[in-house]
Amino acid sequence: MTSLHHHRLHSGQQRSRSHAQPHQVIRRGILTSFNPGTYTANVLLVEATSAFLQGIPVACHLDGTSAQVNAMCAILFFDEQNYTDAVVLAVYPNGAQGVPFPAPGRVVLTTGTALFSGQFIASGSTATFTAVGGSVPGGALGIVFSANFTSSSAGSYIQIAPHGAANIGNYVAIGNLPAANAFLNGGGLVQLDSNGKIDIKANGGACTVSLYTQGYVI
User: Fold this and answer.
1) Domains of the chain, with CATH numbers?
2) How far is it, in rounded angstroms, from Cα 58 to Cα 211?
3) Tens digit of pLDDT for each residue in 166-211?
4) How far apart are CA 201 and CA 181, in angstroms?
């Protein structure tokens, strides 16, 4: 009786397993390539270094800035027995490897806010302003801005750059002023330095400048 009872229990277990849902599991891997055209990746499994998986779908919140070669990744297998039924959920640094540079960012739009208004900058001079605070949080990489200026000198213009930039001419310029005492408007994106500061330089004449933020990159 005991032997028969165990046999029947075992058979019942087998039948239960045959009707069980596929077992999901998350494994660690190393990203060896990312294809943005198909949004797939090739991955080397950490737990089984001989298992090289090709064409695994990648979660759409990842992109080429984060899906770095040699980065670690987390792979969800919807069926542990079917390695083609999977998705790369996340990537993260593998020591010093797989760290995006420069750091990726996303744009956040905010209500327009005056950073400063009617700031006088002498001709050829550079003024420094702190952009973080208020609607722009610390750690922001850049700002979405609009700016305007006026000058008594026709042909004047302003340059805007992250504070301490080696060449301010490599960044944003607004101008040249078409006529003396006219106003000129412009806007765009500009990087911040590590302390959240920007420089503005007046060229061709003294300029009175106003700048407004409408968002930031973080």
Assistant:
1) 22-92 (2.40.50.230), 107-217 (2.60.120)
2) 40
3) 999 999 999 999 999 999 999 999 999 999 999 999 999 999 999 9
4) 18
